[in-house]
Amino acid sequence: MTALSRRRSCLGQPWFERTIFAMLDIASHTLVPAEPLAMDTPSLPVLGDKSAMRALLVGDRIDTMALERDATLPTVSTLPLAVRAGVNGIAVVFRYGVVVFVGLTPAEENEFLKAVRSRITGPFRAREREEETAQIEVSAEREDQIPPGGPIYVKDMALERLLLVAYALADSVVLARDEREVSSVFDTLEPFARELAEHGRTPGGRRAILKHIGNALLVQHRVSGRVAVAEDPDVLWDRPDLSRLYSRLKDEYELKERVDGLSRKLAVISETAQALTDMIDTQRSLRLEVLIVALIAFEIAITFYQMYAASGAGH
Question: At what angle do helices 243-252 and 159-199 cross, to 10 degrees?
Answer without folding.
Answer: 30
